[in-house]
From TrEMBL:
<dbReference type="Pfam" id="PF08402">
    <property type="entry name" value="TOBE_2"/>
</dbReference>
<dbReference type="GO" id="GO:0005524">
    <property type="term" value="F:ATP binding"/>
</dbReference>
<keyword id="KW-0472">Membrane</keyword>
<dbReference type="Pfam" id="PF00005">
    <property type="entry name" value="ABC_tran"/>
</dbReference>
<dbReference type="GO" id="GO:0015697">
    <property type="term" value="P:quaternary ammonium group transport"/>
</dbReference>
<keyword id="KW-0067">ATP-binding</keyword>
<dbReference type="InterPro" id="IPR015853">
    <property type="entry name" value="ABC_transpr_FbpC"/>
</dbReference>
<dbReference type="InterPro" id="IPR013611">
    <property type="entry name" value="Transp-assoc_OB_typ2"/>
</dbReference>
<dbReference type="InterPro" id="IPR003439">
    <property type="entry name" value="ABC_transporter-like_ATP-bd"/>
</dbReference>
<feature type="domain" description="ABC transporter">
    <location>
        <begin position="5"/>
        <end position="237"/>
    </location>
</feature>
<keyword id="KW-0408">Iron</keyword>
<keyword id="KW-0410">Iron transport</keyword>
<dbReference type="InterPro" id="IPR017871">
    <property type="entry name" value="ABC_transporter-like_CS"/>
</dbReference>
<dbReference type="InterPro" id="IPR003593">
    <property type="entry name" value="AAA+_ATPase"/>
</dbReference>
<dbReference type="GO" id="GO:0015408">
    <property type="term" value="F:ABC-type ferric iron transporter activity"/>
</dbReference>
<keyword id="KW-0813">Transport</keyword>
<dbReference type="GO" id="GO:0043190">
    <property type="term" value="C:ATP-binding cassette (ABC) transporter complex"/>
</dbReference>
Amino acid sequence: MSARLSFQGIAHQYDALLALRDFSLDVGAGEVVCLLGPSGCGKTTTLRIAAGVERPSYGTVAIDSRPVAGPGVFVPPEKRGVGLMFQDYALFPHLTVLDNVKFGLHQLPKDEREPIAMRALEGVNMARYARVHPHMLSGGEQQRVALARAMAPNPRIMLMDEPFSGLDNRLRDSVRDEALSLIDQSGASALLVTHDPQEAMRMADRIALMRKGQLVQLGTPQELYYRPVDVQAAAFFSDVNICGGTVSGGLVTCALGSFPAADFEDGTRVDVVLRPSAIDLHSAGIGVDATVRRARLLGEESLIEVEVGGHDALLQVRIRGTWLPAEGTHVKASADPERALLFEKATDA
Ligand code: ATP
């Protein structure tokens, strides 16, 4: 069971602060959209507006084309058919796990609540803890119960705010995958807030990248990673190497090499942005001269920092395999022109 969720022309003001501006977004039926962006960019505000715990200053929110917030309309949270899961999962400490999950089902007749709650707990592998109290569970287990509580009423839309951020890495991966598969099975649509680009790429059908209360890019994880709209959007997903150059004859040449720039007029100053994985190092052959300054093994990959003549910052390079050249080694660095991201330089100011 799923529903479309749409924000149209939302602005939201907290006193003098404009937390959201001109924000429009459609979450399709059954789609998982991640709101991604740095702290304070308005992600939580957007989610709270969708949930109905915050009323937008301007604009309309609609679920399946029916306005739930807007001029003269306000449908309260419990009538929106949405499931909520927030960072502080806030299980009631005085209730058992089972009663916590049943609590979310208070709109159902009493005798129907327990079997539905037990099924939800089975779905997250927590049925055996039904009779215990939350303080006896680990963080990951409590988060699973919170997930069961949010999913038990079979919401058409799940709204999740950094729900996995309190968990350690390994646990986070497993709870996250579990959440995703439950959402998938139920067919619900989901809007998920995160500041972690890896999490967004792992979970989202589409990512909505936000900055200063505005949507700056909306697209699939591939689109955001490989075709970011600007340097900042590129830098949100990984370290980036940036070198500046001026376009001439359809090419831009900078300290890291020459790159096709047919989309820019001659004389345009551009930033060439290269992710560390878009650069390769060789002991000899083509490429610009570089000197290794630091090399670290990351597992299947190595992160190597090299110095390149005419380029102020150290160049960050990620290479597959376990090659760890010693400091001072002379190498050649070559960048994949297809992976170079070119942006017109904003201003010289
Ligand atoms: P984070 O990742 O840190 O949670 P966020 O992207 O979710 O950040 P919001 O919590 O939506 O951002 O906050 C957006 C802006 O609105 C911030 O500048 C924040 O300080 C401000 N803000 C949020 N809630 C309130 C409030 N209740 N009253 C006043 N200002 C608020």
